[in-house]
Design goal:
Helices cover 40% and strands 19% of the residues. The protein is α+β, with helices and mostly antiparallel strands. Strand 4 and strand 5 form a beta hairpin. The longest helix is centred in the C-terminal third of the chain and has 21 residues. GO terms for molecular function: kinase activity.
């Protein structure tokens, strides 16, 4: 008999698995609608939508194995990482979806949020001031004009599945929309800098590596408080705080 498995849960959404079916419960109907629309438009393998009855979206499991997990060595080959880079390039070159996504936030708003999070991290003694200040300086390179692309917006390595060095599925499209393509590349390689060269080789065009590194710092600085408040551990080996330390 299949068991109900809790995949992830926090105050915004929860995902359950029953056999080969995933049930995504989201209080934000617009986010679910955006996910369904993005999967229909994306020119890469995505999960099959089984049914959609708000606030629940049921999707089928994709074949293959995730590239890995943050904080753990990736079991995937360099060729699999390169295949992921090639898939991201196809996505970024596709016709734009109608709305901005997570990777397309207003730069002034993003800078203000970054300043606020840095102040919170230092005022509350969560991280040393020199660590925050250095990464705030690195993050500055990400706050620049960019050409809109079709972005996934939450391209963690757990969201990219491969089999036999080919991409078999990319999941969790709730943050998709128009945005900065380098945000996707940075999210995929966060905590796995050793595979950045493989991803860029598969992506097949010149990218600004300093901007990708800036996004590593920016994402990590913005994420620490959220992770703590939602029951996750950014201090775990190889995770966000270690990413910040690697910039020193």
């Amino acid at each position: 008999m299949n068991e109900v498995q809790l995949v992830v849960a926090h105050s915004e959404r929860a995902t359950l698995r029953v056999g080969d079916v995933f049930l995504k419960v989201d209080a934000d109907q617009a986010r679910i609608d955006a996910e369904v629309e993005a999967m229909a438009l994306a020119p890469v393998p995505t999960p099959k939508v089984l049914w959609h009855k708000p606030p629940v979206l049921a999707i089928a499991a994709v074949p293959g194995t995730a590239l890995g997990r943050l904080g753990e060595p990736s079991p995937a080959s360099p060729a699999a990482w390169a295949a992921a880079g090639a898939a991201i390039r196809r996505l970024h070159e596709a016709p734009l979806p109608p709305k901005p996504g997570r990777a397309g936030r207003d730069l002034d708003e993003l800078a203000a949020d970054l300043d606020g999070e840095c102040e919170w991290l230092m005022t509350n003694g969560v991280l040393p001031a020199d660590l925050v200040t250095r990464n705030r300086q690195v993050a500055e390179a990400a706050l620049r004009p960019w050409t809109p692309a079709f972005t996934h917006g939450d391209l963690q390595i757990t969201h990219v599945f491969t089999d036999d060095d080919r991409v078999t599925g990319i999941i969790d499209w709730s943050e998709a929309g128009q945005g900065d393509g380098l945000f996707d590349l940075a999210t995929l390689t966060l905590g796995h800098e050793e595979h950045l060269g493989d991803v860029v080789a598969g992506y097949g065009t010149d990218v600004d590596l300093d901007v990708i590194r800036a996004w590593w710092s920016l994402r990590s600085l913005l994420g620490v408080r959220w992770l703590i408040e939602h029951g996750f551990d950014p201090f775990a080996p190889g995770c966000e705080v270690d990413v910040l330390k690697s910039r020193l």
